[in-house]
């Protein structure tokens, strides 16, 4: 049996309150390796205004269900780890607030001690487009997204909200991690950033994808600069993962699965396994790399 060498390591995972999400799966995966896990979260504060009768009590995958999960604290995830004998705690803060970064590290270190592994998973998402509203009003997405409209024309606000969390917060968290690591003369550290496949550009999700593409560039720069201090920095890029937002068949799932050679949606555990690998001793000489975990989705086959 391979020993990843993660026992007693301390992990900070951002964006871990959705029990069906990637952050929660990552937290559970590290806890299963006997690491202590501190989970950051920030609850969603708005509703999808689409007149859907199920919005107040969603019980199936789709946007209302997903948003309901995003409004939760991380207590459910923390308790699921503690029930299996793991060590976990959580704290809520808004990563778009510049003061939140050092405060989050302080809180995590007060709970478990020095952070060994940082997983930047938290993300802000709102689909936007260059198309004007007059055009969007004529676009029918109901076949794929029956739970409501997804797109709006890009604004300064939609641009800035994505970059504030998806890019700026992740890079400042990495810088804070590096500062504490170097000042404390530590010699082992891991940073794993969660991107998204199609980050190089995607119609209808331009700000979200662009912010993730920028994060990839920051990650490679961090890998080059922090390697001499024993810190590896790598990127996991998920394909379509069922975190509760994809409508069940026959609408959303089937349309997406048809474009995936493995013929299924990704599961949060698929991403968590890749993250644990990058943190493991087996990945000790791997840094600055992008691992796309997508079942073959969006492969470039030259056709």
Based on CA atoms alone, the radius of gyration comes out at: 19 Å
Number of domains: 1
Alpha carbon gap, first and last residue: 41 Å
- Look at the structure and give the mean pLDDT: 87
Notes on the protein architecture:
With 303 residues, this protein is an alpha/beta fold. The chain has a single domain (10-293), classed as NAD(P)-binding Rossmann-like Domain (Rossmann fold, 3-Layer(aba) Sandwich), CATH 3.40.50.720. It has nine helices and nine strands. The chain has helices at residues 22-32, 63-70, 75-82, 100-112, 133-136, 156-183, 206-226, 252-257, 268-279; strands spanning 10-13, 36-41, 87-92, 117-120, 128-129, 152-153, 189-194, 231-238, 290-293. The strands form two sheets. It has a seven-stranded parallel sheet, with helices on both faces. Helix 1 links the parallel strand 1 (10-13) and strand 2. The longest helix has 28 residues, at 156-183. Residues 48-57 and 142-149 have low confidence and may be disordered.
Topology record:
Elements (H helix, E strand, L loop, with lengths): L9 E4 L8 H11 L3 E6 L21 H8 L4 H8 L4 E6 L7 H13 L4 E4 L7 E2 L3 H4 L15 E2 L2 H28 L5 E6 L11 H21 L4 E8 L13 H6 L10 H12 L10 E4 L10
Parallel strand pairs: 1-2, 1-4, 2-3, 4-7, 5-6, 7-8, 8-9
Helix pairs in contact: 1-9, 6-7
Key descriptive features of the protein:
single chain, 303 residues, alpha/beta, Rossmann fold, seven-stranded parallel sheet, two-stranded parallel sheet, 9 strands, 37% helix, globular
């Amino acid at each position: 049996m391979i020993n990843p060498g993660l026992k007693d390591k301390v992990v900070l995972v951002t964006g871990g309150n959705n029990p069906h999400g990637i952050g929660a799966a990552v937290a559970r995966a590290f806890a299963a390796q006997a690491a202590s896990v501190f989970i950051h979260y920030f609850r969603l504060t708005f509703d999808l205004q689409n007149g859907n009768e199920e919005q107040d009590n969603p019980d199936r995958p789709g946007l209302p269900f997903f948003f309901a999960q995003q409004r939760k604290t991380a207590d459910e995830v923390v308790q699921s780890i503690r029930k299996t004998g793991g060590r976990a705690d959580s704290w809520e803060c808004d990563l778009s607030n510049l003061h939140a970064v050092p405060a989050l590290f302080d809180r995590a270190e007060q709970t478990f001690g020095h952070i060994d592994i940082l997983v930047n998973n938290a993300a802000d998402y709102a689909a936007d487009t260059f198309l004007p509203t007059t055009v969007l009003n004529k676009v029918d997405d109901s076949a794929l997204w029956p739970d409501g409209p997804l797109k709006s024309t890009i604004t300064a606000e939609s641009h800035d909200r994505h970059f504030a969390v998806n890019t700026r917060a992740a890079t400042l968290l990495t810088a804070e991690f590096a500062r504490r690591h170097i000042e404390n003369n530590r010699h082992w550290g891991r940073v794993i950033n969660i991107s998204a496949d199609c980050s190089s550009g995607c119609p209808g999700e331009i700000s979200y994808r662009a912010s993730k593409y920028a994060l990839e560039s920051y990650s490679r720069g961090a890998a080059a600069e922090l390697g001499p201090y024993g810190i590896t920095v790598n990127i996991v890029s998920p394909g379509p993962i069922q975190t509760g937002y994809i409508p069940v068949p026959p609408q959303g799932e089937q349309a997406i699965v048809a474009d995936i050679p493995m013929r299924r949606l990704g599961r949060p555990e698929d991403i968590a396994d890749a993250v644990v690998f990058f943190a493991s001793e087996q990945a000790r000489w791997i840094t600055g790399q992008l691992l796309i975990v997508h079942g073959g989705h969006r492969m470039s086959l030259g056709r």
